[in-house]
TrEMBL record:
Biological source species: Butyrivibrio proteoclasticus (strain ATCC 51982 / DSM 14932 / B316)
Domain of life: Bacteria
Protein's name in the database: ATPase
Species lineage: Bacteria, Bacillati, Bacillota, Clostridia, Lachnospirales
Length: 365
């Protein structure tokens, strides 16, 4: 039990980096990587989408790291709130290997405030688009490919400008590729702009739940619990990435405080899990729902209380929410897209996120 020290907790409540206990979605990860590294990629742009806390950012970082390990690839991560073209140019110039190549090619980027004015320069950039064309030409001659990653992208005029530039660069046969994450509604807003050819044609990959067996195996090994307790914990997460981390994090700390691995108080654990899910994800998800979305969820919750099954008939929900078929269909689709509700079983809906009904109880007060 000496390994159970709070500062060595391998689970984390932090975002934006790959945690020590990380369950890889191998199939999707390999599909995205293989698309980019093949000689003729099917897609130059790809989106990863999923509900908040589903692990989009972690997968983005994992793929960026894996591709970046290959000698013929350069990776750059951009802040979605920045001037994307200017930020890309500056990030490329800051890579020592590339800076040396740009200087050797006598490229002048002083207009962007990077580098110095070069006497008898071969080319002088007049703006960020010119600078990037010059940089990409150097990368192409060096047989380098460029992967750009952007986390939580949303539509903006700058994103539109960036998309048009990428279409132009792709047309010049530069090896430039883009991998993004975003909520489904934000990706739809981008794809509704059909003039944004590069992003409009980008493939969307939605993250499904983590494999519950993999979670069970992880908990059994890491927390040193019995198979029965590991299964109980794994099913409690419903495969939700944030719940996997939060449950493991709190369970580890309970063992640190003296509980035997199989004797941790599950009611207390549920309370800690609920607090973490609420603070880190559910409050934000709830705030983004419309009043009609919530009306459907309250109807589902009321009906589910009287059922043994997690599945609730669509027609019963519609009647309980007092909506017409057309109106209900709109909000059913919205809730499925939001990741709160599962509609895979024809004619039925169920709550997709773990302990979301318990979270809703707090909204009554």
């Amino acid at each position: 039990m000496s390994k159970f020290v709070e500062i060595k907790n391998p689970y984390t409540l932090q975002f934006s980096y790959i945690p020590p206990q990380f369950i890889e979605r191998t199939l999707i990860t390999n599909e995205i990587i293989n698309n980019f590294i093949r000689d003729i990629p099917t897609y130059r742009g790809m989106f990863i989408t999923g509900v908040r806390g589903s692990g989009k950012t972690v997968m983005l970082g994992d793929i960026r790291n894996k591709i970046g390990e290959q000698d013929d690839w350069i990776t750059v991560d951009l802040n979605p709130e920045s001037n994307l073209l200017d930020s890309l140019a500056r990030n490329l110039y800051l890579i020592p290997q590339l800076k040396t190549m740009f200087v050797k090619a006598k490229l002048d980027f002083s207009v962007l405030g990077i580098g110095v004015s070069i006497e008898r320069a071969s080319l002088i950039a007049s703006n960020e688009e010119d600078a990037l064309k010059m940089m990409l030409d150097v990368l192409k001659k060096a047989k380098k490919k460029l992967l750009i990653t952007i986390d939580e992208i949303t539509y903006s005029k700058d994103v539109a400008k960036f998309s048009h530039a990428l279409s132009s660069y792709a047309g010049m046969d530069y090896d430039i590729y883009l991998l993004m994450t975003g909520l489904k509604e934000n990706i739809k807003a981008i794809k509704n702009q059909k003039s944004l050819t590069f992003l409009y044609r980008a493939k969307v990959t939605e993250l499904e739940a983590l494999n519950v067996t993999a979670i069970c195996n992880d908990y059994q090994k890491t927390l040193e619990v019995s198979r029965e307790r590991a299964e109980q914990l794994a099913f409690k997460t419903k495969g939700y990435s944030l719940a996997f981390q939060a449950l493991g994090y709190h369970y580890w700390n309970e063992i640190c405080r003296g509980s035997k691995p199989d004797d941790v108080d599950m009611k207390h654990l549920d309370s800690e899990l609920d607090e973490s899910l609420s603070e880190l994800s559910y409050d934000k998800i709830w705030d983004e729902l419309s009043e009609s979305d919530k009306k459907v969820l309250w109807a589902m919750k009321k009906l589910h209380t009287n059922l043994d099954s997690a599945l609730i008939k669509v027609e019963d929900i519609r009647k309980a929410a007092a909506m017409t078929s057309n109106t209900f269909t709109t909000y059913r689709t919205r809730l499925i897209d939001s990741g709160v509700v599962d509609g895979k079983q024809h004619g039925y809906l169920s709550f997709k996120l773990p302990r979301f009904e318990e979270f809703m109880n707090l909204k009554l007060y």
